[in-house]
Amino acid sequence: MGELENKLNGANIEYRISKKMSPSGIHECLKNIDESDLVYVVNPWGYVGRSVCVDVGYAYAKNKPIYVMHSIKDPPVMSLTHGVLSFEELIIFLNQENQLAS
Predict the structure, then answer these.
(1) If you write DSSP's letter for every residue of 32-64 in order, what string do you get?
(2) Which of 24, 30, 62, 102 stands the most exposed, by the fewest C-beta atoms within 10 Å?
(3) Spelled out in words, what is the top-level CATH class assigned to the domain 2-101?
(4) pLDDT tens, residue by residue, 51-62
(5) DSSP code for 74
(6) CA atoms within 13 A on the CB side of 91
(7) Is 22 left (phi over 0), alpha (psi -120 to 50) or beta?
(8) Residue closest to 54 by CA, chosen among 1, 16, 4, 18
(9) Residue 68 gets which letter from DSSP?
(10) Are 66 and 60 in contact (CB under 8 A)?
(11) Do the beta carbons of residue 72 and residue 42 sit within 8 Å?
């Protein structure tokens, strides 16, 4: 996660990160989704656990665009996403979105 945080900071992009085992549990993740324009799932090797599946479903229900680092191995969950973006592609995408909003 540190690599992504460094890249986002270097690009001056505002972000929120939900880290596993947060004391406030899933409630913090859901709050972060509510306060975000999009959701990016860091999922090495395509794996997502049950909690992340809940996050993805919640974000989908809230009409938040969802992008993932690697294709999710569970096709129904992957179908809820907008696509796969590397860290570098995410930064480019977010910068383009910021330019369109300006």
Answers:
(1) HHHT-S-EEE--GGG---HHHHHHHHHHHHTT-
(2) 102
(3) alpha beta
(4) 899 999 999 999
(5) S
(6) 12
(7) beta
(8) 18
(9) E
(10) yes
(11) no
